[in-house]
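Structure ticket #2291
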Amino acid sequence: MVAGGLLLLLVLEAGIYNWRLALAMRHRDLAEQGRQLSWKRDELLVERAALLSPARLQQVGLGLGLGPVPL
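Resolution: structure written out below.
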């Protein structure tokens, strides 16, 4: 009976260890994905700022042959 109880405790301990290990790996993967998404967001914010720059818009417009509209 005691040996059966000890065996059950060992099996439960191994299961809990594996579960915690799986959770730790999932946390690591999600943290890495979060870092990648943060980097991508920063890149997109820089690109957005460049695209919304009035000087850049004027330069592109002049390159297309557009000019200021006469009043």
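Closing remark: Residues 12 and 49 are 55 Å apart (CA to CA).
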